[in-house]
Amino acid sequence: MQLKISRSLFSLTEVRTVEVQADMGRYIDLSQLAFQFGGKSLSEWKKWTTGSNFNGDPFITIVEKPHFVGDTGVVKATLKFDLLFNRESLAERSIRTQYQQFIGSYELAMTDPQTKMKASATVQLNVYDEFLFYDELKPTIDQIFKQAHQKNNRYLKYQSLGKSIEGRDLHFVILAKSKAVVDRYLNITLPTALEQPEKLIHQLDNGLIGEYQVPIWFNNIHPDEIEGPDAQVELLRKFALEDKLTVPIVRNGQKETVSLDVNEMLDHVIFLFMFTNNPDGRAANSRRNANGFDLNRDNHLQTQPETIVVTQEIANWTPLSFLDMHGYISRFLIEPTTPPHNPNYEYDLLYNNMIRQARAMGEAGLGNSDFKSYVIPALDYKDGWDDMSVGYTPMYAMLHGSLGHTIEIPALSQDGFHAMVGIGLGAALFVQEKKDQLYKNQLEIFKRGVNGEDNRSVDPYLVNASRKSIGRIRGEHTNFFPDYYVIPIGSKQQVNKLEAYKMVQYLLRNGVKVEKLIDNTVVNGITYSKGTFVIPMKQAKRGVANAMLYKGDDVSDWKAMYDSTIVNFPDLRGFTVHEIRNTDAFNQNTIRIRSTGLPKGNIYTAATFHVLANTNNDTIKLVNILLKNGAVVEKALETRGLINKGDFIVRTNDLQHFGKNYYFIARYLYTSIPVKTMQLKQTKVSVIGSTQLKFAVSELGFDMVKQADADVIVSDSSSIIVSYLTGKTFVGIGFEPLKAVKSRGLLPGFNIDQTKNGHEGLVKAKIKNHLLTSGYQTDEVLYTTSGMWITSVPAGAEVLASLSNSNDFFIAGWWPGHENAKGQILAFTHSFNNTTFTLFANDLAFRAHTHNSYRFIANCIYDS
Ligand SMILES: [Zn+2]
Question: Where, by residue number, does the polypeptide cross the bilayer (predicted)?
Answer without folding.
Answer: none
